[in-house]
Amino acid sequence: MALIVQKFGGTSVANTERIFNVADIVTKTAQAGNQVVVVVSAQGDTTDDFIEKAAEITDNPPAREMDVLLSAGEQISMALLAMAINKLGFHATSLTGWQAGIKTDLNYGSSRIRTVRPERIQSLLDRNRIVIVAGFQGINSHDSITTLGRGGSDTTAVAIAAALHADLCQIYTDVDGVYTADPRVVPGAKKLDEITYDEMLELATLGAQVLHNRSVEMAKKYNIDLEVVSSLTRNPGTKVKEVTSVEKMIISGVACDKDVARIAVMGLPDEPGKAFRLFSLLAKNKINIDIILQSIGRNNTKDISFTVSRGQLDETVRLLEENKDKLHCDSITYESKIAKVSIVGAGMASNSGVAAKMFEALSNAQINIRMISTSEIKISVLIDEEDAQRAVRAVHDKFFD
Amino acid sequence: MALIVQKFGGTSVANTERIFNVADIVTKTAQAGNQVVVVVSAQGDTTDDFIEKAAEITDNPPAREMDVLLSAGEQISMALLAMAINKLGFHATSLTGWQAGIKTDLNYGSSRIRTVRPERIQSLLDRNRIVIVAGFQGINSHDSITTLGRGGSDTTAVAIAAALHADLCQIYTDVDGVYTADPRVVPGAKKLDEITYDEMLELATLGAQVLHNRSVEMAKKYNIDLEVVSSLTRNPGTKVKEVTSVEKMIISGVACDKDVARIAVMGLPDEPGKAFRLFSLLAKNKINIDIILQSIGRNNTKDISFTVSRGQLDETVRLLEENKDKLHCDSITYESKIAKVSIVGAGMASNSGVAAKMFEALSNAQINIRMISTSEIKISVLIDEEDAQRAVRAVHDKFFD
User: Fold this and answer.
1) What is the CATH number of the domain that holds A105?
2) Which residues of this UniProt protein bind substrate (chains A, B) (predicted)?
3) What does DSSP assign to residue B50?
4) Does the beta carbon of B156 lie under 8 angstroms from any beta carbon of chain A?
5) What pLDDT, in 10s, does the model give residues B234-251?
């Protein structure tokens, strides 16, 4: 008998038919002799409807009350799913975040789980119940309801799996696993049977959008076997674990991120502390920096380029212009029509020539590289946005054909 | 500075405009120097929508999960109201039933409040917060969510007022008080400035439907000043208290209940225990009896007549027919086209001739009385349904013109 945590997103419980599909998956897992804990998101458009209701009242709702409102969404879906499971002849009990012992920090809107007290879930499992837990929500030390922000239900599932020492945490989505590239862009993209936590983290950061980063980080920390699987096809999905057992591929995927803008600060004095002053200014204003590149300029100056998300471009440029004198730089330039293409793979570290192979593929496709950034298991290049799809296909074909 | 509990029903918070109307009432009360606790129901049709969602899944939802689902309704409305009050520049904090310390018994669907632990509400009031509490819901000793059944939000408001020793509990509805008769039937009906708990209880039982009985019972027990007031007109409403200060009117109202059916069990042996056997059979089957009348029949027999709600008529007749032999009765007759007209008034006890005055009014209107039942502060008569409106008007005119 195994203990399995299964997480279902909002589209998986969007209507009565889909709720019964989920109930079928859950009860079949239980019937096979497993203990099952289900983590469920709010139904389809519920969250958007709530946000709209709040927007009718105020542009600036108090974060605490927004969490009270949003958390009602999972309370609705978990009750309906419990009813469906009971209808199929199994005993299910639903628990809100606080009932399931999910304690968070004090932030509203994007709270982080501090601890999970799994006693109540465990005692229900011991009495042969299927336990349904509201994803995305918890309670803080003031006994006020909090929500976990984007991807929160994935994090709830992994945190519960960790607290219960579950054998497996399955994340059901509308895709049937993690692919070597976006299948909509690269027709030859292959589904991966397995991937390491680190590879999954790099891919999540790079915009693969299958699992939320925080959930993968937590799974890695507590060594929880994750599986990404489709609630519609029910085919075997992709397993995410510490070490993959299959023969290691050099790279596990090609990702593309178009939410990128590049800013260059030109002609900074080549003196100690200048870069620090620049990035501490940005950090203070909560601008998230991705790739950084420093090059030597003329006349004892240096140029620093970096990337930010497009939503933060205007604010960043405004900030820099306002502080131009303090920074002692000559000029500030920026461009937004660029994209970041990356390859990720744990096998990269022990295989030389991976970067060269990627650059060769881009060169053959006549694609100009604007910036390069590398880590232990990742190589990213910045290119023109219009070349993005061609670049992903060229790199993918080079490694996987 | 007074502490005031204000309760608003579902129609009062049905949309954004109405929510701001409520926020305006609440903040004006606070601005006048009062501490305010608001108890709020689910928005307009929310509860019906939830019941429909559940019905799509199963005819027989587990009561526990139904309460989880329904209680999300007040969580939505309380968050929206808190946002509106904050928008108006006041600090409001919303609390679910369990957060507000409302502990109930173990029943789902029609739970009763056991205790209210008001510490959290009190501490928020001490910090100058307007506190919004979800009506209709609480938590049982298993830490599971319960709902209080019909009229539950009124009961929540009174229970909180009792626990906080509030100075006043205002029940905002879409009528502007308690009338001497239904204004739709009797054009000359007058709004009462004051009414006693006992009178209100009799009127509620008799179908006036302004306040739920349980809330009035609780207000009487803890001596809470209640006020029924309209959230739309905002005129002074009707105060419900232990002793009314105005010169006592002989009667405070005329009520009519058409949800009545009469059953007669004829020819029971005139021996001890026969009536007990009849009514214990009905009690065992959860048939609620209202008026009972026993008369002497022929040949050492007696006839017992009583009334039930029309919804229970068929079941009651079936039960009696099945047990006819055990009851040793001759025959069972029934009729459903009847109505009960009642006058209620705490002044009745000290004023003789009230019953005679009522019967005179009915006699002058040529209305035949089928049964009579009296209590300390109430006189009810059973008449033909078709005479009901004429009877209410005739009696009302006799006492109030």
Assistant:
1) 3.40.1160.10
2) 47, 74
3) H
4) no
5) 888 899 988 766 555 678
